[in-house]
Specification:
about 500 residues, alpha/beta, Rossmann fold, Luciferase, domain 3, GMP Synthetase, Chain A, domain 3, 3 domains, six-stranded antiparallel beta sheet, 15 helices
Length: about 500
């Protein structure tokens, strides 16, 4: 058996069988129970001919069944593909077809609905697989470093989501690089706030299980009061959340004042530009906590650069740098003229074992995503930055049409294409505008076809039928004509002003 996570799970089940591994609103699984149920899922897949090299969908999140399914897929030697239950059915159906899934795992209660949604793909209930497994032991399937562990779909510029293929080699390199920063151990109590289809789940679900910690699954929606109560009640030591969620928690009610947060040791954050005031609120409320600001694309297994923050600076307004590369990660910078340097400024290029194998069934996009530098394969992030004299990297925004909202990477062209697929829409412009709740939110300027009618609610409903909720613009501004430059091209400056971007 290869893969540090699988070896560790087997070890915890043997040496600390009674320790709590996973806690949800309805169940509490020990490491022995979690491993036994995951092995049952793996055995059930094997009996149906699903094993090494296969891709298996996992539908659902924030449940013991979903986590059991995910781990069972890995024990079977296959790779898991999370299917967002909150996304439109058409999007899930498209991912199933694009990935060529061998099967989809879901809860027993959801199978009838999934059967109608997903078509002929084999659907298996996690509960059935667990119940049908007998007393016979299951031997995990041997996989190699380049065998896939998971495929996560991200927003794509062509209007089709891209499947990011992460092998066991990359997952193991990530665990080795980030582990010393977070110092998670068997005594740690970790809060999972991320969804399974979001790469942060590698940090707040898989990494704690690797180290034998107890993981509490937070609510599917990041309801501030519930999360803060859970952190206090369970004496959470480790929390991972995107910056907007941390801000939401810090601003709940009277803020963090009076909250009992003395158990907190590490807060892992990133995926968005970090609000200094939010960081200082957490540092002031939890005397022993250290905030780790991280950076990294899904294509490089979530996190490649990090900056621990411990300094109490109540009046700080300057943005934090994203930090130094993790061990085994190399970061270079490509200037607009194509010159690659060690310090930049320019586009961040990433090399190392944490890189994806490539995009599933996207050879052209995959070729464009990589660059050979001195014989070494680098991933082109599309992010801008530079390295200071002290070796610390500062982030300087995007070089293309992608933004991050609540940690999710969104290609604005994909959203625009969805809006323009509405029969009443002639032209659309999408931008990210400041938002009090999430830091940024999508807003859209729309020009309707002559004689056509549409309103904000109808446009939002149309987009929501094709894209996940986090990709639906919060505001639609209808205009008779787009402002234009003397060349006839749309005036993007004035368009952005229309939505306050």
């Amino acid at each position: 058996m290869t893969g540090s996570l699988l070896r560790a799970l087997a070890g915890h089940a043997g040496t600390a069988p009674g320790r709590a591994a996973l806690v949800t609103s309805g169940r509490r699984l020990s490491y022995r129970e979690l491993y036994r149920e995951a092995a049952a899922v793996a055995s059930g897949l094997a009996r149906r001919g699903v094993g090494r090299g296969a891709l298996v969908g996992v539908h659902g999140e924030k449940s013991a069944a979903a986590v059991t399914a995910l781990l069972g897929v890995l024990l079977a030697g296959a790779a898991y593909v999370p299917l967002d239950p909150s996304a439109p059915a058409a999007r899930r159906r498209g991912l199933v077809g694009d990935a060529g899934l061998a099967a989809v795992l879901g809860s027993r209660t959801r199978l009838p609905r999934l059967t109608a949604e997903l078509g002929p793909v084999p659907l298996l209930a996690v509960e059935d697989l667990v119940e049908e497994h007998g007393a016979e032991p299951f031997t995990p399937v041997e996989v190699g470093p380049e065998d896939l562990a998971y495929v996560l779909y991200t927003s794509g510029s062509t209007g089709r989501p891209k499947g990011v293929c992460i092998p066991h080699r990359a997952l193991d390199a990530f665990f080795a690089g980030v582990g010393p920063l977070l110092e998670i151990g068997p005594e740690s109590v970790c809060l999972n706030t991320s969804a399974l289809h979001f790469d942060v789940s590698v940090v707040d679900l898989l990494l704690p299980l690797l180290h034998g910690a107890t993981v509490h699954l937070g609510p599917a929606l990041p309801l501030p009061a519930l999360l803060l109560d859970l952190i206090e009640r369970e004496r959470v030591t480790h929390l991972a959340a995107v910056g907007s969620t941390l801000t939401l928690l810090a601003q709940q009610g009277d803020g963090l004042t009076g909250r009992r947060l003395g158990a907190l040791r590490r807060i892992m954050t990133g995926a968005e530009v970090l609000n200094p005031a939010t960081v200082q609120s957490w540092l002031a409320a939890a005397e022993q906590v250290r905030v780790v600001n991280g950076y990294g694309p899904t294509e490089a297994t979530c996190l490649v650069v990090a900056q621990p923050i411990a300094e109490r600076e109540p009046g700080r307004t300057a943005h934090y740098p994203i930090g130094r590369p993790l061990p085994g990660v190399t970061v270079a910078f490509r200037s607009p003229d194509g010159t690659v340097t060690e310090h930049g400024p320019g586009e961040l290029l990433i090399a190392g074992d944490q890189l994806m194998t490539g995009y599933l069934n996207r050879p052209e996009e995959q070729a464009a995503a990589f660059l050979e530098v001195a014989g070494v394969r680098h991933y082109r992030t599309g992010d801008l930055g530079e390295r200071g004299p002290d070796g610390v990297i500062a982030f300087a925004g995007r070089a293309d049409d992608e933004v991050k909202i609540r940690g999710y990477r969104i290609n604005l062209n994909e959203v625009r294409g969805s809006v323009e697929s509405h029969p009443a829409v002639a032209q659309a412009f999408v931008a990210a505008a400041p938002d009090e709740r999430d830091g940024l939110a999508l807003a859209c300027v729309v020009r309707l076809r002559p004689g056509a009618e549409a309103d904000q609610a109808g446009l939002a409903a149309h987009v929501a039928g094709a894209l996940p909720r986090y990709m639906v613009p919060r505001e639609f501004v209808l205009v008779p004509e787009f402002p234009a430059l003397s060349t006839g091209k749309p005036d993007t400056v004035r368009l952005r002003e229309l939505v306050g971007a």
